[in-house]
Design a protein that fits this description.
heterotrimer, A mainly alpha (about 300), B mainly alpha (about 300), C alpha/beta (about 450), A: about 300 residues, mainly alpha, MetI-like fold, two-stranded antiparallel ribbon, 2 strands, about 75% helix, about 0% strand, globular, C: about 450 residues, alpha/beta, D-Maltodextrin-Binding Protein, domain 2, 25 helices
Chain lengths: ~300, ~300, ~450
């Protein structure tokens, strides 16, 4: 067996570690089994499938095709369109979420009677099921009888109904709006948690020095939030990039293919075009793009160094 | 000075109220719509406040009334989609709870083991979990589906639970690991030195301290599995076995969309999450603050 | 079955799943034997098939087959997804009635059980209404894979009061130009109302509505009589696209999202003067708006001014039986034959969805029981158009211009290539020719990918 080194070279600790070696492995075992079956195996299988032609109607007829699936994807204008749109959708979502998230967190950070109620209400969208919000969106943005058009009409902002989900640009904007609505609370949660740890003395000192509110935000708050924001942005970028449900349920990638992202592309390849192999290959390309994201995350957040230091 | 402060306070409240209104409006509007009778839903201009309050949409949902092809007998007694609403609801509850139990228990045990014991490859596990969480669910869904097909498990709630474990376990693992790293080890050591067994220490000392982290992981799992559509869509096929998310989309299909039913089911789908949220909001902020952001 | 029973049944399925996993498949069969085996049946999307399945269960009871047929609903735009997942999971339904192109596709894939025996048992050949052949329901390389069940044509649905009020002539004799003019006049004179509504979203319905125009102009997608060459990029297709672009301003502005549902909704809410649809629009009007129903008439599609053709996308619908992993083939065949042989059951089936499903057997179409339906009093002319006059103009994407079955259409519907091509023209402002050429490339790709089916 491997010699199991103690955490710290103290005698009492060593006995504690060694005597419980089995317990440690026992505790680890469920995770190892589950992870092997439900994390590692499916990904490995997806990678394998990317090299096969696999028609779900014919589970008996699976053929090795080498790199054909990848070639097909890279030749497919729809893939590039989906990638471009995925970047637009991700970029705008993240930008708006970050700005709104920080602003709202600042607003919620003030101490006012009843602020807890507002906090609760503003965080609420995060837990609203995607299906629910997609349906609501289709209802309030309904071009014929939707309340949003009605409101804009009666305010005189527009003079005829906007077809929110029927033109490529508006559909993309609606999808981005949905994502911002639902996930800004996540940014608020994280920023708020960090804000609460900033000592108030810092602000008091700045006030004495005569710094205005905006200066205090730039000089104190923002630097303190930097670390959190970097992490949150990277996380949110990856998750938004991966999102399938929001777009599929709201627009099904339409009108046309103007709101396809890579996840919708992969789904359509697998289920509508009956090419599971191509779907898997599209997934593998997504993983490759995301690995880059993860590496950036690990670098930027200093996650690795911290470990080495101990 | 006080006048100015008061004025500022009023302005703040006004701002908060405005923002809250915009954020909450879609749900409030869904609720109002769900309480309107069928014809009022289509009024133009729309009525903001329902002029007639009715529970007919909810009644239709819970009693499985046929809102589409009204002559129910004409379709050979075939049940309309709304007849399955309660099934779907129960399915979602079972699947969500099942996933939550598996994911939190497994990740808690593993996180404890990772932070309290030493073994080879240990450092890789949190990284692995993190990478696992970056993997889009669209990657998992097809291989898992084929695996379920081989095991003859498609269209069972168990297959959904296993599918959701795929997408929730990595983040739970990550979150619990981050949490356990922050829990001081000294009390446990003292207890062990005093002769308490490892299991007893885990049960009586570790679990209570780790509780906020466990709750955060559980909330995360609950949200993800209650919200999922993709796995439900691909794995499940019989009407009575669908989860809520996939089921309610049936109201959108066919040759008639019933917005009243849709909005009533939206409200009913949100209520369990809302209750949970109100009860656990504190932990959500604390737990996510610690786990998601710290690492 | 009551709600609680069903809830319990599905809970039990979870337990069964667990047991299967635990006992490696030993436990489940033991549980299953205590009650009748359930054979799943797919009707079309929507509540089709219910009455037919009741008839099948009557057979099961009378012959003590210890089997129960149960209809399973398919989401409208999820036919392919459901088919793909169920076949991939090796748990196909016992019996299917879906869109014709998908039936042709499955037949060519070799996934279906031949049903020549059933068709003989029900004397399908002799009983078939004039204008249809057994092959059109789903045959491939000389083998029959479908038992005829109904036909449903997509026609021009008109609010007669508007046409009369504006003096637009007789829709029965319209050609494309008169029809386009009528759409324009209605849209102009009735603000807020569309002149004509068709589906233009990325879905099956739009595929169907678009291809009708292509055929009327004389175009098609693949030519089964010329080795399935892709012939989509013909001047006829370009003309049809151009015509759709001409009609577009008379349609609801959101038509590019429309599928089955929205077209019917639009018409049943009185927001369009005319639309393209199957029988359901009239059924909806009868249930919801008597005034609309009274003024609603169906006509053959307007003729192309050059070719004079009035093709209509028609589901020539048969029952098909998956061959692999289907433990119910024998019972299903007997039950289908039993119901198909019963004029009584077939009339009830037709009546259950009036006027969606046209009877395909002469004895059913002419039986007094059939003609007793009240629509035959109120809407005799329209029913005659739907059930009889449309038949010579019936074809579909798997049977274009009646030049032979092609199994490729199912694949193209999976990704709605026709609809996408038109959307490129309407949304991305491509010219009809560019959009058609894009479509040609897609269809050629479908053909290349599935060459093996064509070679046989």
């Amino acid at each position: 067996m491997h010699g199991i080194p103690p955490v710290r070279p103290e005698a009492k600790r060593r006995s504690f570690q060694l005597s419980d070696q089995q317990v440690g492995l026992l505790f680890m075992l469920p995770f190892l089994v589950t992870a092997a079956a439900f994390m590692i195996w499916p990904v490995a299988e997806a990678v394998r499938m990317a090299f096969f032609a696999y028609n779900p109607l014919r589970p008996d007829d699976v053929r090795w095709v080498g790199l054909d699936n990848f070639e097909r994807i890279l030749d497919d204008p729809l893939f590039w369109e989906s990638l471009r749109q995925a970047l637009v959708w991700t970029g705008w979502s993240i930008l708006l979420q970050t700005i709104l998230g920080v602003a709202l967190a600042m607003l919620l950070h003030v101490s006012l009677p009843g602020i807890a109620l507002f906090r609760g209400l503003l965080l609420f969208p995060y837990i609203v099921p995607t299906v629910v919000i997609a349906l609501n969106w289709r209802w309030i943005f309904n071009s014929e009888i939707g309340i949003v058009n009605h409101a804009l009409l009666s305010l005189g902002v527009i003079d005829q109904n906007i077809a929110w989900l029927s033109t490529p640009d508006m559909a993309m904007a609606s999808a981005i709006l949905l994502n911002v609505w639902k996930y800004t609370p996540f940014v608020i949660i994280c920023v708020l948690a960090r804000l609460q740890t900033i000592p108030t003395e810092l602000y008091d000192a700045a006030k004495v020095d005569g710094a205005g509110a905006w200066r205090r935000f730039l000089d104190i708050t923002l630097p303190m939030l930097k670390e959190v924001l970097v992490v949150v942005i990277v996380f949110r970028t990856i998750w938004t990039f991966n999102k399938f449900e929001e777009i599929y349920l709201l627009t099904r990638g339409g009108p046309g293919t103007s709101t396809f992202n890579l996840a919708v592309y992969a789904f359509e390849e697998g289920m509508a075009n009956l090419r599971l192999g191509v779907a898997a290959a599209a997934g593998v390309i997504m993983i490759a793009l995301l690995l880059v994201g993860t590496i950036v995350y690990v670098r930027v957040s200093g996650f690795g160094q911290e470990e080495k230091a101990t | 000075m006080t006048a100015r402060a008061a004025l500022g306070r009023v302005a703040l409240y006004a701002l908060l109220a405005a923002v809250t209104f915009v954020v909450c409006f879609p749900l409030v509007w869904a609720f109002f719509t769900s309480m309107k009778p069928k014809d009022e839903i289509f009024f133009w201009p729309p009525t903001l406040w329902p002029s007639t309050w009715t529970l007919e949409n909810y009644r239709a949902l819970l009693q499985g009334k046929d809102a589409y092809f009204q002559a129910g007998s004409a379709t050979g007694g075939q049940a309309p989609p709304s007849a399955f609403f309660l099934d779907w609801f129960l399915n979602s509850v079972i699947v969500t709870l099942g996933t939550t139990v598996i994911s939190t228990v497994v990740s808690t045990l593993a996180a404890y083991s990772l932070t309290r014991f030493r073994f080879p490859g240990q450092r890789a596990v949190p990284y692995l979990a993190l990478v696992g969480y970056m993997v889009p669910s669209i990657i998992f869904v097809f291989p898992m589906f084929l695996l379920m097909a081989d095991l003859r498990l498609t269209d069972t709630l168990l297959s959904l639970i296993l599918g959701y474990v795929c997408i929730t376990l990595p983040f739970c693992m990550w979150l619990m690991w981050a949490f356990f790293r922050g829990v001081p080890i000294e009390i446990e050591e003292a207890a062990l030195v005093d002769g308490a067994s490892r299991l007893r220490v885990f049960w009586e000392i570790v679990l209570p301290t780790a509780w906020p982290g466990i709750v955060a992981a559980a909330i995360f799992t609950l949200i993800v599995s209650w919200n999922d559509y993709l796995f439900g869509r691909v794995f499940m096929n019989s009407m009575e076995n669908l989860p809520l998310t996939v089921g309610v989309m049936h109201f959108f299909d066919g040759t008639h969309v019933d917005w009243g039913l849709m909005m009533a089911s939206s409200v009913l789908m949100t209520v369990p999450m809302a209750i949970l949220f109100m009860a656990l909001q504190r932990h959500l902020v604390a737990g996510f603050g610690a786990g998601a952001v710290k690492g | 079955m009551t709600d609680t029973m069903r809830a319990w049944a599905s809970r039990r399925r979870l337990l069964q799943g667990t047991a299967t996993l635990a006992a490696a498949g030993l436990a489940a069969p033991a549980i299953a034997q205590t009650q009748p085996r359930v054979a799943r049946v797919w009707g079309e999307p929507g509540p089709y098939g219910g009455v037919f399945v009741n008839g099948m269960n009557e057979w099961a009871q009378r012959s003590n087959a210890n089997i129960r047929f149960e209809v399973e609903q398919i989401p409208w735009d999820g036919v392919t997804v459901k088919l793909a997942t169920d076949l991939a999971a090796r748990r196909p339904p016992a019996l299917i009635s879906v869109e014709s192109p998908i039936a042709y596709q499955l037949a060519a894939e070799g996934l279906l059980e031949p049903v020549d025996d059933v068709n003989r048992a029900i004397r399908a050949q002799e009983r078939l209404v004039d204008g249809f052949t057994l092959e059109q329901f789903g045959a491939w390389r000389g083998t029959q894979y479908a038992v005829p069940v109904h036909h449903q044509p997509c026609l021009l649905v008109v609010q007669q009061d508007l046409v009369d009020e504006f003096g637009l002539g007789n829709p029965a004799t319209w050609n494309w130009d008169q029809f386009a003019n009528a759409a324009r006049v209605i849209a102009e004179r009735r603000p807020g109302m569309a002149g004509y509504t068709m589906a233009l979203g990325r879905n099956l319905c739009a595929d169907y509505h678009i291809t009708q125009f292509i055929w009327q102009a004389g175009g098609m997608t693949w030519d089964p009589q010329a080795e399935f060459r892709t012939v989509f990029d013909s001047p006829a297709t370009v003309e049809a696209f151009d015509f759709i672009r001409r009609l577009h301003p008379t349609m609801p502005r959101t038509a590019v999202e429309f599928s089955f549902l929205q077209v019917v909704d639009q018409h049943a809410a009185g927001r369009t003067g005319m639309s393209a649809y199957w029988g359901r629009t009239m059924g909806r009007a009868a249930e919801e708006s008597q005034a609309l129903f009274n003024n609603m008439e169906y006509y053959l599609n307007p003729a192309h001014p050059g070719t004079g053709m009035r093709w209509s996308w028609t589901d020539i619908n048969g029952w098909i039986i998956p061959r692999r992993d289907n433990p119910f083939i024998r019972e299903t065949k007997e039950a289908v034959a039993y119901v198909s042989n019963s004029v009584d059951w077939m009339v009830r089936y037709s009546h259950s969805l009036m006027p969606n499903v046209g009877p395909v057997f002469k004895d059913v179409a002419t039986s007094p029981q059939m003609l007793a339906h009240p629509f035959f009093q109120s809407k005799r002319r329209t029913l005659d158009v739907i059930f009889t006059q449309s038949v010579p103009h019936a074809c579909n994407t798997g049977l274009e211009l009646k030049r032979g079955v092609n199994p490729l259409a199912g694949f193209a519907h999976g990704r709605s290539v026709w609809a996408q091509a038109v959307q490129r023209m309407l949304l991305n402002n491509e010219s009809p020719r560019q959009a058609v050429e894009w479509g040609q490339r897609q269809f050629e790709g479908v053909r290349r990918d599935n060459q093996r089916l064509l070679q046989g």
